[in-house]
Amino acid sequence: MAIDLTNFWDETDKVPPPLTTEFIQQAEQQLAVHLPADLLALLKQQNGGYTRGFVYPMAHPTSWAENHVPFDELFGLLPSDRGGASILDSGYLTQEWGVPEKQVLLSGDGHWFITLDYRHGSEPRVAWIDTEMEEDVPVADSFSTFLAGLVDRDEMPEDEE
Question: Residues in domain Knr4/Smi1-like (predicted)?
Fold first, then answer.
């Protein structure tokens, strides 16, 4: 069952600044990409932060788990002076962590990332990239497909040992 996108964000004490159309245009210019409409719709609800705790089921194992990848946080589009994880840090973080080119980072901690993968054209796929294990795994053909496939973490069956 698809998740309720109106109930996507976890409650937080610290609300990020709202996302403006002008800042979206500046961000897309800086990143040299067109960001998916579904991503921008979520960031207009709340400009980044912790999700309610989702996972994306995977047919193939990754370094994270046998059957899924996590999606507990979505970076916002935040100016550098606002602090917090920002999609705009993608350029710096890809160099710092050795992530392949043409990635826009959505979530992760440096050891791994969920990314918008623009290596195949202007419509990004979603990828799992583990920088320590050198994994580069396709997750979904589009951000819309990724959102539609997210499930509540508590509904995901446990990995079988």
Answer: 18-149
